[in-house]
TrEMBL record:
Classification via InterPro entries: PilZ_domain
Domain annotation PilZ: ranges: 4-85
One Pfam match: PilZ
GO molecular function, one term: cyclic-di-GMP binding
Protein name per the record: PilZ domain-containing protein
Gene3D superfamilies: predicted glycosyltransferase like domains
Provenance organism: Desulfosarcina widdelii
Length: 110
């Protein structure tokens, strides 16, 4: 799945995700997401093939998705993950991805 050999398109995202690897549990921002994987924006680097479990809101802030996968690429601004099992709700229909939530849509209660 290197380069642009994705089975499913990705959608730009700005979602805070919690993820766990053999190095611990962390929180960072998802840069993009698709049915078969995502990109985490971070300074952290993980070895190719590192197992990872992620938790994040996807279609609403009260619906938390848990997905497992492995790290497939590191870049200067983050890393890419390939899911073990695709997220069916993100399969492109008629050329359009479903709407996802974004952190910028959260309402600040003061």
């Amino acid at each position: 799945m290197e380069g642009n050999k994705r089975q499913h398109p990705r959608k730009a995202a700005f979602i805070i995700a919690e993820y766990t690897t053999n190095k611990g549990t962390f929180k960072d921002v998802l840069k993009n997401i698709g049915a078969d994987g995502l990109f985490v924006r971070t300074w952290r680097k993980f070895e190719y093939g590192t197992p990872i479990v992620l938790k994040f809101p996807l279609f609403s802030f009260d619906q938390i998705i848990q997905a497992s996968g492995k790290v497939i690429r590191n870049e200067h601004n983050g890393f890419a993950v390939s899911f073990d099992k695709r997220i069916n709700g993100l399969v492109c229909k008629e050329g359009h991805l479903p709407e996802i939530v974004h952190e910028s849509n959260r309402i600040s209660l003061k």
